[in-house]
């Protein structure tokens, strides 16, 4: 927040001291208003809407604590500082218990004392506003909890139980089940003041993942033209979500273990340790127990991460709630595409519950997006639903060679990822198992 935007109301019946404080803070760049009595100040509070109120403790008609109570009703977001010549422990404690952030004794020994106090409060409010905006940006667009946790109420209870603690959480679930979304909800419920920071360990090459997680110093390697903060540093006091944790190499796993053990890490090229109080949530769609047995994942790291395991069921195990999820997605995707809202026909319910959904909610969302794009009538047309056997549900197919289009899409995704099937499956919004089946079914040569 710019200093000129930070508004301060000063209340003191001693006019010379009132003028001194107003001059000091106005010269520092703040917007200042003043009043020589509590009554005048209360009339100004609603109009001026101060960020900070500095009030004398002992004044005629109303003391500073009584004034603070009245002023807070009119300006609930304002902070308060008490100033008094009557410096006793009792009055200080009383003021702080009533919500004052600071307690200053007059006369001021040094104007810098006042400037420092105000600067700290201004910085505090700026951080609160910034985090509030981050939360609004992050959580304003996610579905309501009755959609996210439709058919999986026990998962919501697990999230509520663990959120207020500092426990590390390990999420298990197939691709597309909504692990990232649920991690955001967990962070939101935790009330942690820092940001939610997400990184997909499978999407970043191993040699770059370390610098993404821990940052680097200028000159640490060729191309490091300036210092860069890592995700752990950015996530301080917040949450870091490590998706696809099983894809992390053994060398980097050892460095992650150090962060879990003592909350410290070093930027690449630095000998100084930094601390991160970030809460760690990890996720995987693989069987880490098997990877641990095969020595592809560190056993000690597994136990550190697996403090509070949560399994996210696949969509095929929550088909009783699929209509709730689908209806939400229809509205959300229609709004994102700027398309008129067309509901799914009731006749679609049977097809939705008969399908296996190997790509889970992500596949459902992709299907709905295609439906919205191609539909012209009052209701949506389901363009393509394959049975678990691979047969197409004829009554919901559109004209044209759907399989041919799907084959081309798969080939393009594989070409884009250099033949990496896991990454291609992510692009297509289906599970790796489903992609491998389709490659075989469509006789795609790699």
Task: Kindly describe this structure.
- The protein is an alpha/beta fold and 446 residues long.
- It has 4 domains: 3-131, Rossmann fold, CATH 3.40.50; 141-313, 3-Layer(aba) Sandwich (Rossmann fold), CATH 3.40.50; 316-390, Helicase, Ruva Protein, domain 3 (Orthogonal Bundle); 400-446, Homeodomain-like (Arc Repressor Mutant, subunit A).
- The chain has 19 helices and 14 strands.
- The protein has helices at residues 15-27, 38-48, 64-74, 89-97, 111-139, 145-148, 153-162, 179-190, 206-214, 231-234, 250-262, 288-293, 299-305, 322-337, 348-354, 360-374, 402-416, 421-428, 432-441; strands spanning 7-11, 31-35, 52-56, 79-84, 102-105, 169-172, 196-200, 215-216, 228-229, 239-243, 264-265, 274-275, 279-284, 308-311.
- Strands 2-1-3-4-5 form a 5-stranded parallel beta sheet, sandwiched between helices. Strands 7-10-13-6-14 form a 5-stranded parallel beta sheet.
- Helix 4 links the parallel strand 4 (79-84) and strand 5 (102-105).
- The radius of gyration is 29 Å and the shape is elongated.
- The two termini are 55 Å apart.
């Amino acid at each position: 927040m710019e200093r000129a935007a930070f508004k301060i109301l000063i209340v003191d019946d001693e006019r010379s001291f009132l003028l001194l404080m107003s001059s000091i803070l106005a010269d520092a760049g703040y917007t200042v208003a003043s009043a020589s009595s509590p009554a005048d100040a209360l009339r100004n509070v609603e109009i001026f809407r101060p960020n900070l109120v500095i009030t004398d403790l002992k004044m005629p008609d109303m003391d500073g604590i009584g004034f603070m109570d009245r002023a807070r009703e009119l300006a609930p977001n304002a902070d308060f500082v008490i100033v008094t010549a009557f410096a006793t422990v009792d009055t200080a404690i009383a003021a702080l218990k009533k919500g004052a952030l600071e307690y200053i004794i007059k006369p001021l020994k040094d104007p810098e004392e006042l400037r420092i106090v105000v600067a700290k409060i201004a910085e505090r409010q700026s951080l609160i506003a910034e985090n509030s905006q981050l939360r609004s940006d992050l959580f304003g667009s996610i579905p309501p909890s009755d959609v996210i946790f439709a058919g999986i109420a026990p998962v919501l209870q697990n999230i509520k139980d663990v959120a207020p603690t500092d426990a590390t959480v390990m999420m298990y679930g197939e691709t597309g089940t909504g692990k990232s979304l649920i991690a955001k909800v967990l962070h939101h419920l935790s009330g942690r003041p820092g940001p939610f920071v997400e990184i997909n360990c499978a999407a970043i090459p191993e040699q770059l993942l370390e610098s993404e997680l821990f940052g680097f110093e200028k000159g640490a390697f060729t191309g490091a033209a300036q210092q860069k903060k890592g995700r752990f540093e950015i996530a301080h006091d917040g949450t870091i979500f490590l998706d696809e944790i099983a894809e992390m190499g053994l060398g980097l796993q050892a460095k992650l273990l150090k962060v879990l053990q003592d909350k410290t890490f070093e930027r690449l090229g630095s000998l100084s340790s930094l601390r991160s109080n970030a809460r760690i949530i990890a996720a995987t769609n693989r069987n880490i127990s098997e990877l641990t047995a095969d020595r592809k994942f560190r056993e000690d790291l597994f136990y550190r991460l697996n403090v509070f395991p949560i399994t996210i069921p696949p969509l095929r195990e929550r088909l009783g709630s699929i209509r709730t999820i689908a209806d939400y997605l229809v509205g959300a995707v229609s709004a994102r595409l700027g398309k008129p809202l067309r509901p799914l026909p009731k006749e679609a319910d049977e097809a939705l519950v008969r399908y296996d959904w190997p790509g889970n909610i992500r596949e459902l969302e992709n299907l709905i997006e295609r439906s919205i794009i191609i539909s012209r009538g009052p209701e949506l047309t389901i363009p393509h639903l394959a049975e678990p056997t691979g047969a197409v549900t004829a009554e919901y197919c559109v004209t044209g060679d759907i399989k041919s289009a799907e084959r081309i899409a798969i080939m393009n995704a594989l070409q884009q990822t250099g033949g990496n099937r896991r990454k291609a499956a992510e692009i297509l919004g289906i599970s790796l198992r489903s992609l491998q089946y389709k490659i075989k079914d469509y006789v795609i040569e790699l």
